[in-house]
Amino acid sequence: MGIFSRLADIINSNLSALLDKAEDPQKMVRLIIQEMEDELVRERSNLARYLANQKDLERQCQRHVDEVASWQGKAELAITKGRDDLARAALIEKSKQQELVTSLERERAAADAAVAKLGEEIAQLQAKLDDARARQKAMQLRSDAASSRIQVQESLARGAGAAAREKFERMERRIDEMEARADVSTDRSLKAQFAELEADDEISRELEALRSRMSTTDKQGE
Question: What pTM, to 2 d.p., does this model score?
């Protein structure tokens, strides 16, 4: 079912009100444009028929105007020849042709008015269609801009997350390095302490041996 029921509905329509009431304005404007385009094709086809009919009426009218002039000439000729009877018959035919001319001129005037009115309505329809297309383009631009903003925000969010993860990983590496250095320092300290203990034991043994040798020498000297 169409949005509009006839051409007048389209011309008198308030596009802003229609779009404001629509749940999906972009879909609504597409439907409106499609219906306007279809109606424009129909009305232009009608206009072409009206114009053809107008041309045909003009040709018929001109033919009967020529007939009026022809019978007028025949009536005058008959009078000059003294044939009043033929002149009367010619004037009767002239009258018939004049009546046809009058009738055709009324039809042509009506056709001219119809063509003018339809042409005006087509111009109004085209203006409405141009307006709808402009609104559709504006909607599309706003939609594209909104999509671009969303993409930028998502990219920034992803970038911020990546930066945070990278910073966290750097901190983890630094902690690992500090712990490794601490482990190495601890290992070296323990080794040094044990080495000192071992060295002290060795010195104590040498000192004891030296004392023992000196004591033996003193006893031998006595």
Answer: 0.56
